[in-house]
Amino acid sequence: MKVGNTHYRSIWFDAEKAKVMIIDQRWLPHEFRVVELDGLDEFATAIRDMWVRGAPLIGATAAYGIAIEMQRNASDEALDNAWERLNETRPTAVNLRWALDEMRKVLSALPESERARAAFRKAEEINDADVETNRMIGVHGLEIIKKIAATKKSGEAVNILTHCNAGWLATVDWGTATSPMYHAAAAGIPLHVWVDETRPRNQGAQLTSWEMNSHGIPHHLIVDNAGGHLMQHGEVDLVIVGTDRTTASGDVCNKIGTYLKALAAHDNNVPFYVALPSSTIDWTVDDGVREIPIEERDDREVTHVFGRLEDGSVASVQISPDGTPGGNPAFDVTPARLVTGLITERGVAEATREGLLELFPERRDAA
């Protein structure tokens, strides 16, 4: 997508510098910084400390991390160490493990002399595939928005609520939940987006709002607890969110607070859709609440906020009393019964095992 007049991916390989470059998302929306990653430790830090975030982008970053490591040392030991080192950075998003498995499957079958070049080819393939996957999520999600738009008066906007950031910053490009919005805007459908602030890291306030501004999509930033009120008063036509892991039975694990939005949507008959690449489906897990590990992050994310001061500088500010600890589960699980549909690159599936298998029949034997 574009920043100003320049097209960016969230991660890319700069052939001239021979470096992997990322948009360092910690500083958005106040500063736009591009940094290079060089070495396994930097890749692990970037994923763990959320310089990059979003399940698809985490996987894409890990793939490049393996490739960079294979330049340094292409041994079996180095490959296994890189897999372990990167896999332990974020426990909830399944794309991380998926991408690492894809890299190891290709590289372990090759002699060491061929691994570095093959690793970059595979990492590029994973990144390019993510772009096309998310574009197709938008194509299928557009049909949902079109149907709602057809029920509106001429010029009346379709009101969409989204939680966290499942935008192009969370993927290599296009985004998951935002891809249908971008396609709808390009098709000339009037839109208005309610953007949840998404405490504690405020990805909605800092990232989704920045994306909406950049693309000229009308929107309002709202506090996390406002969604139910808006639904009660008919001001939300549908909810679209992303997911970091989806079970084979259709449960979805996403940023903390998603479950509460799904409950409010269910109570008010508001369609609740989840947009996801198939790499986010964990076919080995059935019960999301019981089986998906929920990442517990630093309590400082709860007790402090990051923002711009009146003098224009950016700072982290404490909002809680000294001595008050913060609890910080990063994700929650929304049961499949609350999900209207799963928007994938192959189409929209019912949030059931059979619904997913209809779109991904090759998984029947494995499932």
UniProtKB/TrEMBL annotation:
Gene Ontology BP annotations: L-methionine salvage from methylthioadenosine
EC top class, as a word: isomerase
Residues annotated as binding substrate: 53-55, 90, 203, 254-255
InterPro entries: IF-2B-related, IF-M1Pi, IF_2B-like_C, Initiation_fac_2B_a/b/d, M1Pi_N, NagB/RpiA_transferase-like
Keyword vocabulary terms for this entry: Amino-acid biosynthesis, Isomerase, Methionine biosynthesis
Active site annotation, chain numbering: 244
EC number from the UniProt entry: 5.3.1.23
Bilayer-spanning residue ranges: none
Reaction catalysed by this enzyme: 5-(methylsulfanyl)-alpha-D-ribose 1-phosphate = 5-(methylsulfanyl)-D-ribulose 1-phosphate; 5-deoxy-alpha-D-ribose 1-phosphate = 5-deoxy-D-ribulose 1-phosphate
MF annotations from Gene Ontology: S-methyl-5-thioribose-1-phosphate isomerase activity
Pathway: Amino-acid biosynthesis; L-methionine biosynthesis via salvage pathway; L-methionine from S-methyl-5-thio-alpha-D-ribose 1-phosphate: step 1/6
Assigned protein family: Belongs to the EIF-2B alpha/beta/delta subunits family. MtnA subfamily.
NCBIfam families tied to this protein: eIF-2B_rel, PRK05720.1, salvage_mtnA
Name the record gives this protein: Methylthioribose-1-phosphate isomerase
Species per Swiss-Prot/TrEMBL record: Hoeflea halophila
Gene label: mtnA
